[in-house]
């Protein structure tokens, strides 16, 4: 694991806020040369700490008004590989987590309507032979949703 110094942390926090900031602006905010900023960004990408640069799309503006969390369970371990193939192929799945407890996986799914959710459950999740149970939670509102990673506890 790569170690982060204070300059790296500052740079990563600024890039998470807005990755389109000019290098000169980042240089001024952090107090190091533009060439240093450029070199650090390249190193952070090379080391895998920065995994990419992306546009953050407002889901509602794209007509994706329904956010759901779906817990999925089965007892036969052979189900997992097929399930993961289906999930990885689905554009509706934002996140898939292998979890502890009574469930095997937790999905974060974004679709347009309840009909779209029903279609997703039928065609993607319940279409996997061996899936025994699901529980779906529909989000009414979100007080906080972020893609930013806290770097306060990152090793130095």
Shape: elongated
CATH topology of the largest domain: Alpha-Beta Plaits
The average pLDDT is 94
**How would a crystallographer describe the biggest sheet?**
4 strands, antiparallel
Specify the CATH class of the largest domain. Alpha Beta
SSE-based structural type:
alpha+beta
Task: Kindly report the name of the CATH homologous superfamily of the largest domain.
Answer: Lrp/AsnC effector binding domain/regulation of amino acid metabolism (RAM) domain
| Number of structural units classed as domains | 2
Based on CA atoms alone, the radius of gyration comes out at: 20 Å
What string, H for helix and E for strand, traces the elements in order? Answer: HHHEHEEHE
Strand residue content: 15-25%
- Compute the number of strand runs: 4
Number of discrete helical segments: 5
CATH architectural category of the largest domain: 2-Layer Sandwich
Q: Which range best describes the helical content: under 10%, 10-25%, 25-40%, 40-55%, 55-70% or over 70%?
A: 25-40%
| Separation, N- and C-terminal Cα atoms | 10 Å
Question: Which residues form runs of ≥5 with pLDDT under 50?
Answer: none
For the largest sheet, list the strands in their spatial order.
2-3-1-4
Task: Summarize the topology.
Elements: H1 6-17, H2 23-30, H3 34-46, E1 66-73, H4 79-89, E2 93-98, E3 105-111, H5 114-125, E4 133-138
Antiparallel strand pairs: 1-3, 1-4, 2-3
Helix pairs in contact: 2-3
Compose a concise summary of this entry.
This is Lrp/AsnC family leucine-responsive transcriptional regulator. Helix content is 36%, strand content 17%.
């Amino acid at each position: 694991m790569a170690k982060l110094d204070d300059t790296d942390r500052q740079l990563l926090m600024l890039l998470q806020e807005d990755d389109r900031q000019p290098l000169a602006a980042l240089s001024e905010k952090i107090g190091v040369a533009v060439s240093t900023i450029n070199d650090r960004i390249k190193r952070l990408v090379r080391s895998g700490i920065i995994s990419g640069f992306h546009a953050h799309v407002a889901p509602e503006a794209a007509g994706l008004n329904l956010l759901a969390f779906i817990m999925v369970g089965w007892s036969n371990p052979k189900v997992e590989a097929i399930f993961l193939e289906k999930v990885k192929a689905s554009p509706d799945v934002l996140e898939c987590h292998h979890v502890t407890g009574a469930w095997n996986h937790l999905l974060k799914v974004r679709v347009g309507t309840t009909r779209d959710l029903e279609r997703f459950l039928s065609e993607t999740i319940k279409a996997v032979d061996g899936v025994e149970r699901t529980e779906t939670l529909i989000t009414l509102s979100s007080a906080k949703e972020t893609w930013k990673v806290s770097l306060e506890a990152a090793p130095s």
